[in-house]
Structures are given as structure tokens and as C-alpha cells.
Structure prediction request, 417 residues.
Amino acid sequence: MDKFIIKGGRKLSGEVEISGAKNAILPIMVATLLAEGRSVLHNVPYLNDIKMMAHLLRVIGARVEFHDNILEIDTSHAGYCEAPYELVSKMRASIYVMGPLLGRFGKARVSFPGGCAIGTRPVDLHLEAMEALGAKIEIEHGYINANCKNMKGNKINFSKVSVGATANALMAAVLAQGETNIYNAALEPEIDSLIDFLNLMGARIEGKGTSQLKITGVSRLKPAEMEMIPDRIEAGTYLIAAAITKSELTVSNCIPEHIQALINRMEDAGCLFEIMGRSIKIFPPRIITPVDIITQPYPDFPTDLQAQFLALMTLADGQCIVEDTIFPDRFMHVAELNRLDADISLDKNIATINGVETLSGAEVMATDLRASATLVLAGLAARGQTTISRIYHIDRGYEHIEEKLKKLGADIKRVRG
Ligand code: UD1
Prediction:
């Protein structure tokens, strides 16, 4: 297994370009299954999750080619309606195939996702949505078997905001007969992007950007071509990299409004920002002011930036709390940050951070995707050498992270294991 070795304490400078958003691309890749023919996605990063989804689409019978950050998916021969355990267990987003497979082929067999490093992650809302549209769901031998000859539009009222369930419901509803109304839909930019793609395919979805979506079913969809949106979590991670290393940095090719909640909190911490179109220049504070955060669905503070922001707060001038209401168990990074001399205590889903003057390098272990980014951030700021093992997690979601950081002046190297 590969490791990162970081010699911390260096300032960063220059400009970093943000890649396409993995979490927007995964459902769009799957949405191509709704039509017959060749769809083309631009601005797709080389990430393990993308490659894994490409593999799943091939299992289903699609032809997938990936070159120059362009993904071409030909679904003409797709039709094997199964997402096997080997893939779902490695990537929960595999559950996305349920909606499109039910919508186009009337059946889906998807391995039941288990727990993961950030806690138990149920799929009850996905299943309720499929049932509301007429699917018969049976769970046996660790698989979800969903069947429906003709999906029919209905009202879907989510009891909780879920990005994944909203995406799955949308993809199942676009080919269903009649009208579907989704209430309490997720507002994340990744959902807007999926709606754009589905509408390009010929779907009729209204209400983009609101929590109430109206879908008028159509009988056929056609393949589509679209540019993928930039990754707001990657952009946020680099802004925090600048602040934690006290560096001025320009983060380009991003959509600043997608990370407004982070920018607001970082301003509270003392950072200054110059926003020009699709780029953000950050000016770090000399002293980091402690700032409390609570993660909530978009447009509030994202859980996917909780761990990174927490790393920044380890160097704040005082005490603050970080609370995660979306994934209450998502705090595996706390113990690792404490190995770097941070002072964090955890009570259920609330971390209390007492800022320290410096972090010091140590050997730590990456536990999940965002936690690994957090350890990189802490390593960049820490005095001495930090070795991060199990960095395969980071390769799931950050394109060329060590090259990008090296270009900014960081001393980071990958040791192949
Ligand atoms: C997506 C993102 C993930 C991000 C999360 C929240 C992808 C591939 N992943 O995950 O990076 O952290 O949104 O922004 O885009 N829930 C249920 N029942 C369900 C589904 C979800 O109770 O059927 C709960 C979850 O446990 C969680 C909350 O709803 O507490 C939100 O989860 P959800 O938005 O569904 O997250 P994902 O779509 O899995």
C-alpha cells in the first residue's frame, strides 16, 4: 500500500486548478444507462471511484472509454441488471444503478451496502422512493432485488434530506409513467448537475435548485454530452491547505458559490478572499480565530469538509467545537490528529478542539477519503516529517494530489508499497 511522506512547515504559493466533481460525475455516469447510445462527459478526473464506476458499467454491458479527462459511455448493449458485492462493498455509490436499471429495464439486483468507515449508512430512503414508484423490493442473501414492469409517477416525500436517494429517485422517475413530485429533495450542486444532464437527455424535470422537484415522465431518453462541474470539496480542501500553512494561494476553475458556507466560516477564522469569476484568492490570517461549525445539508456547511476544517482549527488561538449532524461517527481523524500533537476530545458527534501552537510530524493512518485529506493538511503544517499510510483512500477522490501540492511548493512524496 502506498504512503505519503510529507516534510511540513513549508509555505505554499501559486495557483491550483480544480478537477471535475467526482460526486457529480458518479450519478451522471449511471444516468447514461437510461438511454441507448453514446454519451460523452468532459472534465472527468482520473480517480479510483470513477474507474470503479466505469468497471460497474462495463459489468452491466456498457462500453466505456476514458481518455484526456473525457469519458465516453456507450450503453447500446447494456442490460445485465446487477451490481455485485465486490463492487458495492468498495464503492457505496454503486447503489445509484438501481434507479436507472429499474427505469429502463424494469429490474435491478444490487448488493446491499454494508457499513463504512464513516459509520452506518442506511439506504432505506432509496428503497422507499423505488417502492413509491411501483417497484417490488425483496432483500435476500445480501442483495436487494427490485422489480417493476412499469414504473408509475407518484409523490415521494423524503423524511430526511439525502443526496443519494434524491439522485436515485430522479433517475427512476424520468422514465416512469405520469408525474412524480419529490419533496424535501437535496439541494446540493451535484443534484442540479444531474438534473441538467437528465434534461439534456430529454427528461422533463422542473424545480432545479429547490427542494421540490416535479418530473413528468417521458417514454424515451437520448444520450447526451456535458461538461462536469468542478469539485467543491477539492476546492475547499486547497483553501484550507492555504490557511493552515499560512500561504496565499489562488484556487482556480471552481464555482465559489458552491463553497460559500466554507468561505463564510474561514472569514470568521480571519481569512480574506478575493473572488474573481471562477477563481478564489485566499489571504491567510496571522492568527487563526477559533470558529464553531455544525455540518448540515447544502447550502450549509458540508460534512465532506468537516475533517479538513477541524484540522485548521487544531491551530486556532483558543477553543471551538465541530459537530457533524450528517454522519455522527465521522471522526476517525481525531485520534490521528492527536498523534500529531493536536488537542481534540470527542463526545459522540461533537469534537472540542483546543488550539495548539504547532503540530509535530508523526506516523498516521488514513481511514477514509476526507480524513486522509485532513492528514495531508495537518502534515503540511506540522513541524518535521509526517508519514501517512493507507493513502489509497485519497486516490478515490483527489486527482493528482501530490503533483498539485508539489507544484505549489509542498514537500510531499509518494512511496509505493
Ligand atoms: C453523498 C456524498 C458524500 C457526502 C454525503 C452528504 C456521493 C457519492 N457521496 O453521500 O460524499 O458526504 O452525500 O453530503 O455523492 N440516509 C438515510 N437513509 C438513506 C440515505 C441516507 O438515513 O437511505 C442518511 C445518511 O445516513 C446521512 C444522511 O441521510 O445521515 C445524508 O446522507 P446522503 O445525503 O444520502 O449521503 P450519500 O448520498 O450517501
The radius of gyration is 21 Å. The domain at 3-19+230-415 is CATH 3.65.10.10 (UDP-n-acetylglucosamine1-carboxyvinyl-transferase; Chain). Residues 23, 26, 93, 121-126, 160, 162-165, 190, 302-304, 326-327 surround uridine-diphosphate-N-acetylglucosamine (CB under 6 Å).
